[in-house]
Sequence to fold (398 residues):
Amino acid sequence: MKIIDLFHLSFENLKSRKSRIVFTTLGFSVAIGTILFLVSLGFGLQRNLLKKITTEESLLTLDIAPAESEVISLNQESLKEISKIPWVEKISPQAIFPAQIDFQGIISETTLNLVDYDWFKLSGALPDLGRSFTKNDTQKAIVNSSVVSLFSLSEEEILGKKMKFTLFLQENEESDKIKVFNPNKEFEVIGVLKEQETSPQVYLKISDFKNLPIKEYQFAKVKVKTSEQMKDVREKLISMGFLVSALSDTIDQANKIFRIIQIILGIFGIIALIVAAIGLANTMTITLLERTNEIGIMRAIGASPANIKWLFLGESTITGFLGGIGGVVIGIGMSQLFNVFINILAKTLGGSEINLFYYPFWFILFIILLSTLVGLISGFWPARRASKLNPLKALRYK
Fold:
């Protein structure tokens, strides 16, 4: 029997029992839709987290800080030594000062972070509103949500506003005297970091403070040329006495956790799929009993046991495939409805919109193939029984 004839007969047989096949396919679709809903939720959460905390450059960046022993300090001399390490492409230091912020006559305390223009790209945390620094920016500022709340403004309203800052410097480590540094400049807010329950933080370009005597930096970001060289650079920095960490380590741990979550969610969906597969096997067995006379006639006119077997396998495979297609539709539909509900709730509570689900094309294709394969497997036992029926007994069956 030709394959095209096999599928034609399978479709015709399915059409003759529409109600039963519709409900069987629907059971398969619900199971596949459940798998898609749960696993795509895991993919979506993972994607949102990584998108939030990473940039391409940040995965090649090492964060360094001086050890508490105070034997090693992070200053211009040590930065020059670090730049001489092979494979180090870029160094972005960070100096932190206590400061006062002056906005329209309102003065408040804040922490001032002086950074290079590419610091945010290397950190992986870009502003949620507005933009980051560019190389040619002058007198621009990026603030966090706590700064915005100081002046009773919305995060959108503070963009474009100008502020002044006064820095407080400790003259030396042995003295308690504080030196005041006032640049007498206005800085325009170009970006906002949505950081909840944190102290007020302001980020300015270090190039705007050329006259500021920076004796020591608190942190620095060291970008390595390729990921293969990160281990060697890390070991060299540790040997120099610095504390070293990497965002890529956190990302690797997060990915491992999300893989476990996806597996657990997938297991719940697989359980539903097993139940649907049992339902399909039961449907095919009932169909076998109903069509025993038909099978006897087919054998009598020349159909081989293999033809009968593949006819039943074709029907179960088609049912599984249709269940996969229906499951994709149901899964995406359920996830979109759930996402709409969550976003409505988030807006009501003052949050922002987010897409909780992500459907990689390869996963959509995989889940349809999985459903088709399970349909094929579910039909093996009924198909085997049908192929072994005695033609004479089948013709006499009532």
Q: What stands out?
A: The mean pLDDT is 81. The radius of gyration is 33 Å. The longest strand covers residues 88-103. The first helix runs from residue 3 to 15.
